[in-house]
Automatic annotation (TrEMBL):
<dbReference type="InterPro" id="IPR006598">
    <property type="entry name" value="CAP10"/>
</dbReference>
<comment type="pathway">
    <text>Protein modification.</text>
</comment>
<keyword id="KW-0325">Glycoprotein</keyword>
<dbReference type="Pfam" id="PF05686">
    <property type="entry name" value="Glyco_transf_90"/>
</dbReference>
<dbReference type="InterPro" id="IPR014756">
    <property type="entry name" value="Ig_E-set"/>
</dbReference>
<comment type="similarity">
    <text>Belongs to the KDELC family.</text>
</comment>
<keyword id="KW-0808">Transferase</keyword>
<keyword id="KW-0732">Signal</keyword>
<feature type="signal peptide">
    <location>
        <begin position="1"/>
        <end position="20"/>
    </location>
</feature>
<keyword id="KW-0328">Glycosyltransferase</keyword>
<dbReference type="GO" id="GO:0046527">
    <property type="term" value="F:glucosyltransferase activity"/>
</dbReference>
<dbReference type="GO" id="GO:0005788">
    <property type="term" value="C:endoplasmic reticulum lumen"/>
</dbReference>
<dbReference type="InterPro" id="IPR013783">
    <property type="entry name" value="Ig-like_fold"/>
</dbReference>
<dbReference type="InterPro" id="IPR051091">
    <property type="entry name" value="O-Glucosyltr/Glycosyltrsf_90"/>
</dbReference>
<feature type="domain" description="Glycosyl transferase CAP10">
    <location>
        <begin position="217"/>
        <end position="463"/>
    </location>
</feature>
<dbReference type="InterPro" id="IPR017868">
    <property type="entry name" value="Filamin/ABP280_repeat-like"/>
</dbReference>
<keyword id="KW-0256">Endoplasmic reticulum</keyword>
Length: 495
């Protein structure tokens, strides 16, 4: 009996250790903790059982290290994902040094734990640019090319603002309808002049430029940024007599030349996760109701920003067994509230995923919830649209989402078919998740922005100068301790 017990224990230990070899630990929050200072640094852990299945575990993450006020203080979050793997993310309260990160299951170190860092781990708000943009992007593993960027920049191979600037300002200085900023990045400082009555959204453009400038040395460049919803630079055939002008927008469309950037919403979620923002591309991955227990209906909530949204509610009224769609606000179609109402209270976006199918319908332009819908645990039906965000061109219909006609007339038959093809639906859902991991997490958002500015700035042939009357967008003050280690490859002596 005793012997059996000993054997049994030995066996358990053996299984335990062989399982340990199947643990994967990866992600920028470990490999690049010192190179990629984010508000919420993140990495992934998955443990497999003997049969190779991923099993959810409660991991322990310990930080050793120093900060100005003693030991290194962090806030740590574990988010369990649909497939059993976990996201671990952490927010440094101050800049830390001599840091060791221990990733543990019980007492056992996982992956290459303990992870040790020679240099400082800065907080996101420290102005400590580490290397010129191109080098930094290589260090953090950014792709060196992007199809959308390549195609957006084709009409803008030689950008001469000496002649373009006055024409752009003349054409788009329409304070009531256009909000536009002229930015200049010079010696890693950001300057701008804005035109238009509503220019509050410049804070989002400031945020991405300032955040990149804290991490890397941006190339000198001049750019125009459209702060409004609609892309501006219409292709217009014979009606267009000037341009096209290089203008950056958050939303692109098939009939405009605007250069697309990640939306202000994605940028803010990437930079402000674990702080001002609760819905981001990682938090949305939290494991909700398991697939088998989800309600097999399409779900939708939102504002009445366009006609098709009312049509969707109409379909829900006719087919309550297949669609649960309601408006949360009437603004554009107040007179139709009787027919398409009553309006319902907001529900948490995370609760959308109690349903198997999500519908993505345009608002005024592309619906900026689309990335979050892809990151959740449901299958996304996407309405055909001429509008797009920076990543749509890498998606394939039928692979990461299911297409719907513009007028949604095929929604009902599509849901009926989806119900018959449950396994295929799970594959689409998983493809969407893989896409999100590859293209839409904070590192990818910074990489895309960096690559876009790098490629674009090369095409500017006019001198880049701070223009009279420009205002500086200043780095935020910080209470964190931000004494930078030496700046590599820094040829800007004035920094
Ligand atoms: C840019 O445009 C200005 C004004 O038309 C012109 O004088 C200048 O030569 C142009 N620069 C280049 C590099 O083409
Ligand atoms: C629609 O969804 C809401 C929120 O989940 C739920 O409270 C309501 O009962 C649903 N309506 C129908 C008709 O199923």
């Amino acid at each position: 009996m005793k012997l059996l017990q000993v054997l049994f224990l030995a066996l358990v230990q053996l299984l335990g250790s062989s399982r340990g070899d199947d643990t994967r630990v990866w992600g920028p929050g470990l490999e690049l903790a010192d190179r990629l200072p984010l508000n919420a640094r993140y990495f992934f852990v998955e443990s497999r059982d003997g049969a190779g299945r991923i099993v959810p575990q409660q991991y322990r993450v310990l930080f050793k290290g120093h900060s100005r006020i003693g030991s290194c203080r962090v806030k740590i979050e574990q988010i369990d994902r649909v497939d059993g793997s976990s996201i671990i993310r952490y927010k440094l309260m101050e800049t830390c040094w001599n840091v060791e990160i221990h990733v543990l299951l019980g007492e056992r170190h996982l992956g290459q734990s303990p992870y040790r860092f020679e240099g400082k781990l800065y907080t996101e708000n420290c102005y400590c640019p580490q290397a010129p943009l191109e080098d930094w992007m290589e260090q953090i593993g950014c792709p060196s090319e992007d199809v959308q960027i390549n195609s957006d920049l084709i009409p803008f191979r030689a950008v001469n603002f000496s002649s373009l600037r006055p024409r752009i300002i003349q054409q788009y200085d329409k304070p009531g309808s256009v909000s536009l900023c002229n930015y200049v990045v010079k010696d890693n400082q950001i300057y701008r002049t804005c035109y238009g009555r509503y220019t509050g959204f410049k804070m989002y453009m400031d945020a991405i430029l300032l955040s990149l400038a804290r991490k890397t040395l941006l190339p000198d460049m001049e750019l125009f940024v459209n702060l409004g919803d609609w892309p501006l630079v219409t292709k217009g055939g014979h009606r267009r007599t000037t341009g096209p002008y290089p203008i950056f927008s958050w939303c692109g469309s098939e009939d405009t030349f605007d250069i697309v950037m990640p939306t202000y919403d994605l940028v803010e979620a990437s930079l402000e996760a674990m702080s001002r923002v609760s819905l981001d591309m990682l938090s949305v991955q939290r494991k909700g109701v398991p697939w088998e227990e989800k309600v097999p209906k399409a779900f939708w909530r939102g504002r009445d920003a366009c006609r098709e949204r009312l049509d969707l509610v109409g379909l829900s009224q006719q087919h309550p067994d297949l669609v649960n769609a309601s408006l949360t606000n009437f603004f554009f179609f107040r007179d139709e509230e009787k027919k398409y109402g009553p309006k319902v209270a907001h529900i948490s976006f995370f609760d959308f995923f109690d349903y198997k199918y999500q519908v993505n319908v345009d608002g005024t332009v592309a619906a900026y919830r689309f990335p979050y819908l892809l990151g959740g645990s449901s299958v996304v039906f996407k309405q055909a649209s001429k509008y797009y965000e920076h990543f749509y061109s890498k998606l394939e219909q039928g692979r990461e989402y299911l297409p719907l006609k513009r007028d949604l007339s095929d929604l009902i038959e599509n849901i009926q078919r989806a119900r018959q093809q449950d396994d295929e639906m799970i594959t689409v859902r998983d493809n969407a998740k893989a896409f999100v991991d590859q293209h839409l997490l904070p590192r990818s958002i910074l990489c895309y922005s960096g690559l876009l500015f790098k490629e674009y700035s090369r095409n500017i042939v006019s001198p880049v100068q701070i223009l009279p009357g420009m205002e500086q967008a200043s780095q935020p003050g910080t209470s964190s301790y931000c004494e930078c280690d030496s700046v590599e490859g820094n040829n800007h002596d004035e920094l």
